[in-house]
Write a structure and sequence with these properties.
Blueprint: E1 4-11, H1 22-42, E2 47-49, H2 78-90, E3 93-103, E4 106-114, E5 120-125, E6 151-153, E7 158-161, H3 170-178, E8 183-188, H4 196-199, H5 202-210, E9 213-218, E10 220-221, E11 231-232, E12 236-238, E13 244-247, E14 254-261, H6 263-271, H7 291-295
Parallel strand pairs: 1-2, 2-3, 7-8, 8-9
Antiparallel strand pairs: 1-14, 3-4, 4-5, 6-7, 9-12, 10-11, 12-13
């Protein structure tokens, strides 16, 4: 039988600025997303992904210990627990980004994966942490991920996660493919003038190289008072041939829905035998700190 899955992405603008309390900020964004999840459910979405740091602003635009208070445990924190209830109610698998605290002072940029019956399947922790462009001070907030590149068997598809800046690194994208991912979600927060020219280039390339579907998510709007740029939305789905098959707008909250034909993965792999023709014994340089050091 055909393996079709109806997938959705939510892109949204932050509601309240940093002059409000963290409780008010988080509650406002949770309310917005619960409404958008309801919209997705009405469209019979089976597998849904949310944007990076979805329950607040992109606070990495500044370095302030205040934002540490947005951390919570995964899976035992309130956001994961609530989304488990939401998933079960709507019979919908979810990818839920959370600012995770493992221990006091040890924080990760994380996404929890929840199956359609509400079961917590596991989490991915963002590996590549930027700290180079003005307004993207992520090393102040996040420890590099330490859980590898897991793939989660949901009821509807095998799901991988790669968060925002991760998408600039093909190595993890390949690892997700080798681990069996059929749909890779990339929750992001990225602005025009910095990465927009790469937005529709890198991830279709990952889709082609690894022959899976990409679900790319970006928030929208400008967030005051930081004004680091315009979060340009344009969330999209890309198929294993590198074609963008559905794309959201640039400037508004949106639930993007697309039907993914998972049988296409095998169809493409029968033509392009990239996994068969790999030469892993020749890739030692990839695990060295620098290519020159490996050559010496």
């Amino acid at each position: 039988m055909p393996r079709n899955v109806r997938c959705g992405l939510i892109q949204a603008q932050n509601v309240l600025g940093p002059d409000h309390s963290l409780t008010e900020i988080k509650e406002a964004m949770m309310r917005k997303h619960l409404e958008l999840i309801e919209q997705a459910a009405k469209q019979k979405v089976q597998l849904l992904g949310l944007q990076e740091l979805f329950y607040g602003p992109y606070f990495c635009a500044e370095q302030d210990i205040r934002w540490y208070e947005l951390t919570e445990s995964v899976p035992n924190g309130p956001t994961t627990k609530l989304m488990q209830e939401v998933a079960a109610r709507h019979n919908m698998a979810l990818v839920v980004p959370v600012y995770e605290q493992q221990l006091p002072g040890l924080y990760f940029n994380t996404a929890a994966v929840i199956d359609s019956d509400g079961r917590y399947l596991g989490k991915y922790r963002k590996h590549h942490i930027p700290h180079c462009h003005p307004g993207f001070w992520e090393k102040f907030y996040f420890t590099p991920g330490d859980l590898g590149y897991p793939v989660f068997q949901t009821r509807f598809a095998k799901v991988g996660v790669y968060i925002c800046y991760d998408r600039h690194f093909p190595e993890g994208a390949r690892a997700l493919g080798l681990n069996g991912a059929e749909v890779v979600f990339n929750p992001s927060a990225t602005v025009a003038g910095l990465s927009e020219y790469l937005w529709e280039l890198e991830q279709p390339a990952h889709a082609v190289a690894n022959q899976y579907f990409i679900a790319a998510i970006n928030r929208v709007g400008e967030e005051k008072p930081w004004n680091i740029g315009h979060f340009y939305g344009k969330s999209y789905f890309c198929n294993p041939r590198g074609k963008i098959i559905a794309q959201a707008s640039r400037d508004k909250d949106e639930v993007l829905v697309a039907d993914l034909d998972l049988d296409m993965i095998l169809e493409v792999r029968k033509v392009w035998q990239f996994f068969r023709d790999r030469r892993p014994e020749s890739y030692g340089v990839l695990t060295a700190q620098s290519g020159n050091a490996a050559a010496d």
